[in-house]
Amino acid sequence: MKNIFSLSVFFWMIILNATAMQGGIKKITVKSPDGKTQTEVSIGKNISYTITQDGVQVLAPSQLAMTLSDGITWGLDSEILKSTTKSVNAIIDAPFYKTKKVKDHYNQLSILFKGNWSLEFRVYDDGVAYRFTTTKKGKYNVVSELAEYKFTNDANATVPYVYSAGDTEHQLSQSFENTYTRLKISELDKERLMFLPLSVEAPKGKRITITESDLRNYPGMYFKTNEVKNTMTAFFAPLRNDIEEHSGYNNLQVIVKSRHDYIATVENERSFPWRAAIVTRNDVDLANTTMTYKLAAENEIGNTDWIKPGKVAWDWWNNWNLDGVDFKAGINNQTYKYYIDFASKNGIEYVILDEGWSVNKVYDLMQVVPEIDLEELIAYAKERNVGIILWAGYYAFDKDMEKVCKHYSEMGVKGFKVDFMNGDDQELVYFNERAAKMCAKYKLLTDLHGTYKPAGLQRTYPNILNFEGVHGLEQMKWQPQTCDQVTYDVTLPYIRMISGPVDYTQGAMNNAVKALNTITNVVETQYYPNFSKPMSQGTRCHQLAEYVIFLSPLNMLCDAPTNYEKNPVSTEFIASIPTTWDESKTIDGKMGEYIVTARRKGDTWYIGGLNNWDAREITIDIKAITGKTGTATIFKDGLNSDMNGVDFTKKTEEVNGELTIRMAPGGGFVVKL
User: What's the whole-model pTM score?
Assistant: First the structure.
């Protein structure tokens, strides 16, 4: 981090840190650098804080506390020893993010309490974050953490529930893949956990979006509601006690049989995760936030020149379903050589060998199925400038982590896609970090699948290029026709993607829309679940635009090579688009309806638009967005795309100012300039 300006001073009763005593309660106010967002921290018998923006309160007094196994509660009858403030204005290098340089400008309040613990508050122009820190020595347990969010009214909330209802343990064993539910806070299911990020509407058109950052060796945060009015409260998975190995899908998972009565074990001094409340005046500002990246710990692996983002020819979504070839397609060397040849021909950097290359149900990644000769495949790929990435179930990977990483790194493998963690208790959160650290040691890329949202670890370990934790395109292999993936697609950039990259796995060439049945005069969905020949919802341009809208440094081409070969115009575009960016800005949109985002790599701009099921026209000022005029390549929905989702046009035209584009229901567009 290169500081442009850094100032740390101790002072009272000025705009940055105004302190007052009211009825025995000490109140400290900290404002954002632009003076428009502020938090007021109240310290008395309890500790609470509020958030206000433009004079509008968006978070009412909300308590925070942490209870330890020695009976002490940080945040109850707490005695202040001192408080300090500082202002930071810095530039963060972000080599694999949506922008190469991130401005980190905030005011910070640090309050040291008796008992070797502190609270830190950071106030940005677009939100407030706080965390606990401690210099306490020795080993102890965190019994519970209170993180309360008391909103100012019974507002509409857009939340992702855990996928399955049931008892608490069943809810905790999940992969963080669900669509969004929009209800008033009072209408939310009190028996069901919600995972982060989630977003709540606030007065005067504002919005408060909750997530966390710098989550390391500590359980992730869920939310739940209860009878307390307008309030959500954090919930954390207790630490595992006893597990049943070799369970779940293909015996790849573990089942937790019992848990301890505490959520984390801590040894010596540490900082705890940031609790972030992003406060925005509109949805465009929300899509542009970088707060969670800024709150994360800095790079801990050093040089990153060896890390090569890129695109991946992926096998599993298309079920190895090649056609017109003279061999039996499946998990064998002939099939993977076809994928490698396809990748090489189109400049695609990687091929993944997903589930099936190692012997199933033996939890030993050193055992390869007889149909696969890995050394031959790796050598074949290397000759064609293609890297090989291997899939691994988390339990087998953890069992022999260093042995596996060392062995396959020496063989020439470029990375691992690790899957089926299915939870975020302390043990699983720590596993993600251990996996990233071990992979970095052996110069291996990491794609964390079957796991929770990014929470800063991608900044600390930049070799983590992607995370799942998204209701991605793989869901179209089995979700019922009632699933509305298109509306999800224009919601996730405002919620899930504020926490970091998404392993959404787009790129379908079979595109299903909603079309009018002229006999019944009813609009019907063309989509249906199909495991071996899946399809997407929405138009072809909807799929193309996702490569612009969705941030994904390790980005999949989900369909079969033979399907791409039948669609050369789409394939050429997908294969050539960058996966990391020098500059990004969302310029228009509304959560759940549409989004328009512009991204720059070098001198080339890509502007993408995604739409829900309502046809609309979008007017964009190309020169104002890019600073350029000239010849643009435009991909847009065809005139018949409302009946036939694969219909699109590609054309070039001179653009000097405004450009109006029609997006079909479930549609999209891309402008390249």
Answer: 0.96
Break the chain down into helix, strand, coil percent, rounded to 5: 20, 40, 40
What's the rounded Cα separation, in Å, for the pair 546 and 475? 16
> Distance (Å, rounded) from C-alpha 183 to C-alpha 538?
25
State how far the alpha carbon of 53 is from the alpha carbons of 28, 291, 515, in Å.
Answer: 16, 16, 44
Instruction: Tell me how far apart the alpha carbons of residues 446 and 458 are, in angstroms, rounded to a whole number.
Output: 10
Q: What is the pLDDT of residues 130-146, one digit of tens each?
A: 999 999 999 999 999 99
Q: Which residues pair with 3 in a beta bridge?
A: 90
Q: What is the pLDDT of residue 6?
A: 38
Residue 248, pLDDT above cutoff 80: no
Strands (E), 137-252: 139-151, 156-159, 181-184, 198-201, 207-213, 221-225, 231-236, 240-247
- At residue 411, φ and ψ (nearest 5 deg) are -75, -20
37 DSSP β-pair partners: 53
The tokens describing 103, both together, are 């401005």
DSSP 8-state symbol, 161: B
Contact present, 113 and 135 (Cβ < 8 Å): no
Counting every residue written for the chain, the total comes to 673
Which residue is catalytic, options 145, 398, 419, 489?
A: 419
Based on the residue annotation, tell me whether 419 is a catalytic residue of this protein: yes
Q: Is 315 a catalytic residue?
A: no
Instruction: Tell me the two tokens of residue 284.
Output: 């465009």
Residue 22 bridge partners (DSSP):
25
Determine the average pLDDT of the residues in 173-201. Answer: 97
Q: What is the DSSP letter of 82?
A: E
Whether 121 and 49 have beta carbons less than 8 Å apart is answered as: yes
Count other Cβ atoms within 10 Å, centred on residue 1: 13
pLDDT of residue 11: 34
Segment 280-293 mean pLDDT: 98
Element spanning 438, H or E: helix 426-441
CA distances from 44 to 77, 98, 113, 116, 625 (A): 6, 42, 12, 18, 49
Query: What mean pLDDT, rounded, does the chain reach?
Result: 95
Exposed e or buried b per residue across 537-557, where buried means at least 16 C-beta atoms within 10 angstroms of its C-beta? bbbbbbbbbbbbbbbbbbbbb
Q: Are strands 310-313 and 554-557 parallel, antiparallel or unpaired?
A: parallel
Half-sphere exposure of 273 (CA within 13 A, CB side): 30
Separation of alpha carbons 72 and 200, rounded Å: 33
Which of 256, 264, 181 is closest to 223 using CA atoms? Answer: 181
Q: Which of 474, 503, 637, 647 is catalytic?
A: 474
Cα 24 from Cα 44, distance rounded (Å): 7
Judging by DSSP bridges, how do beta strands 156-159 and 198-201 pair with one another?
Answer: antiparallel
| Contact (CB, 8 A) for 588 and 494 | no
Does 230 have pLDDT greater than 80?
A: yes
Q: Which of 511, 625, 636 is nearest to 573 (CA)?
A: 636
- For residue 467 the two structure tokens come to 């995370």
pLDDT at 2 over 50: no
Once rounded to an integer, what is the mean pLDDT over residues 219-238? 97
2: left (phi over 0), alpha (psi -120 to 50) or beta: beta
pLDDT of residue 515: 94
Asked if 243 and 254 count as a contact pair (C-beta separation under 8 A), the reply is: yes
Amino acid 491 reads T
**pLDDT 10s digits, 530-544:** 999 999 999 999 999
**What are residue 113's DSSP bridge partners?**
80, 117
